[in-house]
Queue: 2 jobs
Job 1
Amino acid sequence: MDEIRIIEVKQSVFEDNDKDAEMLRAELKEKKTVLINLMSSPGSGKTTLLLGLARRFKERLRLGVMEVDIDSAVDAKTMLSAGVDTIQIHTGGMCHLDADMTRQGLLELGFEGYDLVVLENVGNLVCPAEFDTGAHFNMTVLSVPEGDDKPLKYPLMYETCSVLVINKVDVLPYFDFDTERVVANARMRNPEIKVFFVSAKTGQGLDELAEHLLERVNAHLTE
Amino acid sequence: MDEIRIIEVKQSVFEDNDKDAEMLRAELKEKKTVLINLMSSPGSGKTTLLLGLARRFKERLRLGVMEVDIDSAVDAKTMLSAGVDTIQIHTGGMCHLDADMTRQGLLELGFEGYDLVVLENVGNLVCPAEFDTGAHFNMTVLSVPEGDDKPLKYPLMYETCSVLVINKVDVLPYFDFDTERVVANARMRNPEIKVFFVSAKTGQGLDELAEHLLERVNAHLTE
C-alpha cells in the first residue's frame, strides 16, 4: 500500500537528517551562533513577530534571519527593509526544511557573524515539526483567529517546541478563543512548554518574550 | 543529497496516486456521488463553513462528510452533533490524504447513499495540494486573518482549486487585508478561480456559495 511505502522512505530520511542536525548543532556551537527554528500555520504572524523582536534585540545581539517559503520573497523584503540581515530560501515545492538545507542557508547568510539566527520555516503545522533543522530550540506561533484547538489536531508541533507564542491577542474580543483552554491543550502535548501571549501588531507582550529569548540565547552562548 | 532523493520517491508515489484517483472518480461516477476536496490552513474555518453549507443543502441533496486530521475528533463531533453524517479519518501523522486513503474513507462512510461527499482535508497549504484525492473538484478556504499574500507563497494550492472561499469577512475591519489584492494574487495562480467572500460565522455570502456548489454537483450528477 502506498502510505506504508512513504512512511518507510521517510524513516530513513529522518535518520539521515538527525545525524545532519547533530553535526550542524556542533558547528554552530563552535562558531558561537544560536539557531532558533520558528514555525506556525500560514498567516500566524511570524514575520511581524520577528520584526518586533529584531527591534528589541538591537544593540543586544547580532541577528540574522532566514526566510523559508515555497515561492515569493515578500517576507525577506519586509525584514530587509526594516534593516535586518535576511536571506530568502525557496524549498522547491517542499513543505519543510531539513538540516542540510538549513546548513546551505546558513553558509549563504554567512552565519559566523551572528549571535542568533532565526529560521522562519514554511507555514505548516505538520511537516516542519517532523524534521530537526539543527536548531537549538523550536518556537511555534498560534494566532487567536486559528482557534484554541490546534494542539489537539497537530500534536507533534507542540511536542517539539519549547516556546509557544499566542499571537494577535488584540483581536481576542472578536473570536471564540479560550486562553486557559489553549494553554491546557498545549500542556497536554508538552507539559514544559513556555507560553507567551502577545500582539506582534501592537507590541503587547513582546518585551517579556524578547527577554526570555535573550536569556536562552545567552545560556547557549556561554555553554 | 537528501532532498533530491525525496523528490524522486515522491514522483513515483504521485504517478501511482494519479492512477488511483482516476479509478476512484470512475467509481464515484458509477455510484452517482460527487466528491469535493476542501483544503485550507489550520483554523481557516472549514468546519464552520461546512456546517453552514450543510444547513443550506438540507432537503436538496444527501450529504456525507469525511473529516481528516492527524489526531483528535473535534471536527467530526461538531458535524455529527449538527446532524450531518460524518466519519473521522486519522492520517497516522501524514500531512495529506491520497486517493487510496480517500477510497478507504468512502467505503467506511458507505458513499453509495450520498449525492455529495465533502472531504475536509488536513489543515495545510502544501502537501494536500500535491495529491489528487479523486475528487471532482477542489475548494480552498483563506481566512482574512491569514493575509492576502497566501497565493504568492503557496502557488500549487491555488492552481489546483477551482473555488476560493475568503472566510471571516466579518473581521475585515480589524485586519490589513485587501480584498482586491487577494483576488489578483489568486488569479495570478489560476485565472479561472471562482472567488466567494463569506463569513461562516454570520452566514454572510453562504447562500451564493451554496447555490454555486449545488449547480456544480448537479452538473456532475447529470453528466
Note: The radius of gyration of chain A is 17 Å.
Job 2
Amino acid sequence: MSVLIHFSIFPLDKGKSVSPYVARAVKIIRESGLKSKLGPMGTSIEGEWDEVITLVGRCLEDLKKDCDRVYTTITADYRKGVSGRIESKVKSVEKKL
Amino acid sequence: MSVLIHFSIFPLDKGKSVSPYVARAVKIIRESGLKSKLGPMGTSIEGEWDEVITLVGRCLEDLKKDCDRVYTTITADYRKGVSGRIESKVKSVEKKL
Amino acid sequence: MSVLIHFSIFPLDKGKSVSPYVARAVKIIRESGLKSKLGPMGTSIEGEWDEVITLVGRCLEDLKKDCDRVYTTITADYRKGVSGRIESKVKSVEKKL
Amino acid sequence: MSVLIHFSIFPLDKGKSVSPYVARAVKIIRESGLKSKLGPMGTSIEGEWDEVITLVGRCLEDLKKDCDRVYTTITADYRKGVSGRIESKVKSVEKKL
C-alpha cells in the first residue's frame, strides 16, 4: 500500500543559494527512518501516504521558522500491493534498455 | 499561515478518459469547505497545510478503492502572514500587466 | 495533436515578492496568441508542443536577463486528436459533479 | 548557462505497467549524450535549455507513436554561470548534513 514520492522544498526569500535549507529538510527525512534517495532536483521517499506526507509537513514546519516564503513540489505514485519500488522501478526500466 | 497548492490526481490503469475519477476528487475538495478553483490541469486549494494535505489524502484514499495505480502532482506555496491568496495572487499579477 | 500545459516560473534571488517577474512571463504568454488561463499557481496554455515549449523558453530567456536563479514547473497533458481542452476539460469534470 | 531538469513521462492509456514506455524515453535520453541520472520518479538531465527541452520533445514524439494520452512533468532549475550541477547540487547538500 506504499506510495513513492519525489519531493523538493526551498525558500524564495533567502537568495540564490538554498542548499543550507535543503540540507535541513534532507536531515529530517534521513532521521525519519523512511527509505529515501537524494537526487539533483529533489528527494525520493517511499512509505505509507501518511508517513511520507507527515514528513513533508515536518520539513515545511522547520523551514517556516526562519523563511517567509517556501515552495514545495511533490509528485506521488501509488501502486496497489507493491512496495520496495524506490529500488525496483529503476531496475525495471534498466532491464528494458 | 495558510498555504496555496495546485493539485492533480488521476489513475493510470483506467484508460485515457480519467474525468470520472477527477470528478470524484473535485467533489471531495468542494465538500471540504476549503477555498478552491478548478482549472484545466488541476485544482488550486487554499488552507492550513494540515487541512489541504489531509484533503489530498482523502482524494487518494477514495481513488484507491477501485484504482490500482494513482498519480498525484502537488505544488505548494507558503507565504507567512498572508491569506486570501487564491484570489489576490492573480489580481497582483493582472495589475502589473 | 495539441498539448495542454500548466506552467509556473519565478526567480529565487529576488525575495519573497515575485509577481513583477511572473507578470513579465504572463505578458509574453498573452502576446503569443496561444490560448491561456492564468491561475493562482501558474498559467495553463494550449497549443502544439513546439509552440507551448518555445513560449516557456522565451519566458525563461526574459527572466534570465536580470535573475541569477529561476525555477520552472511544467506539467503537460497530450491527448491524441482532441483540442480545445483548455475549456472542455473543466466542463467535462463539472458535468460529472 | 545550463539548466537542470527533473523529467518524467508516461502514457495514461496503457494500464498500470508503464516501464516499457519509460524505458523508450530513457533510451532516447541516454543516446543524446547529455548528462542524466535515472531516479525512481524521473530522470534528471543537465544541458542548455534548448538541448534539454528538445530532448523532452523527442521523448514525447516517440510515445505519441502508439500512445493516445501521455503525461509529462518537468521541474527546471536555471542558475547563472554554474554548470556540472547534476553532481554538485547533491554534494553541496551532503556536505551540510
Note: The mean pLDDT of chain A is 96.
